Amino acid sequence: MKKYDVCIIGGGAAGLAAAASLNNSISICMLEKNEIPGKKIMATGGGRCNITNAACEGKDLTLDFFKSLGLETYSDNEGRYFPYSNHAPDVVKILLGAIKGKGADLITDICVDGISCSKGYFFVSYEKGKCVLADNVIMAMGGKAAPQFGTTGDGYSIAKSLGHSIEKVYPILAPIQCGDFRTIKGVRARGTVSLYKDGDMICRQTGEIQFTEDGISGICVFNITPYIKADEGEQFHTALKRYVLELDLAPDFTQKQLEKRSGSFGILSDKLASCVSLDNIKRWRIPVKGVKGWKNAQCTAGGVCLNEIYMDSMESKIVKGLFFAGEIINVQDRVEDIICRMRGRQQ
Q1: How does residue 335 score in pLDDT terms, banded at 50, 70 and 90?
Q2: What is the 3-state secondary structure (H, E, C) of 10-29?
Q3: What phi and psi, each to the nearest 5 degrees, are found at residue 105?
């Protein structure tokens, strides 16, 4: 049986980037569930692949990494970075080219079912008793969001079998369900969305709001969903009753300016104006009835506990030689910590 220096489980964004970052002298094996690596990457950013954002911590490191591989990027007026070609498959192509240049072995269309350790080695088992032997393992198996691309949470049970704690997972960056909006389905409007919990405002985002059949969508809506969650021991359906959304559909106007107008014509579309009166155009309150599930979510909150990982190297504190990358870990806690630090610097 051939032994590798590193076995990477998962050929998505995290796995491919990890492989491309390794030294050329390291022997690599990558195991991928899908027939084609990077399937989810190719669907991101509307097919353009939003690589990073000007507001992201470590943005320059990400851009320098891709530039070192030969990928040119550009940013739009909202600070989002895309490949210069505007073609997401080019990102996958350049990552695959980098790992093939290292002589990595790529095994696709298989599902890993377990990892065991013996005598300092890892045995990574997959279909029909097959196995990969490696000195180190990188688990980059993703979360549960968008299962149509192969991310079905397989890594959680494996990480747990190795002694790791899994913090409750739930879908985020997804549309919010608010009621029957069939009459305004497809309408888009610039606005501010505020999320209230028990009467207190906990999050606010401004951008384009897209009305769906049963609620609202759009980036500003997606950014609110990580804050819609149940407390410890609380059922999610019970927690939802504590949340309310407030829409300001004229964020560039004051209430007094609106009162001087004869109506909302010129601010709201006819369809939207038929649902919203001039009195509540800046304070349209709607209940939160749910967050769209895994199929509609772009990311997963929760996962492998960060306290069990050395964040400078991403190595497990429990199993030497075991590393984690990407959405399998509870990245959301890290994001919220960064946001809190940024707010502290601004005050």
Answers
A1: low
A2: CCCHHHHHHHHHCCCCCCEE
A3: -90, 130
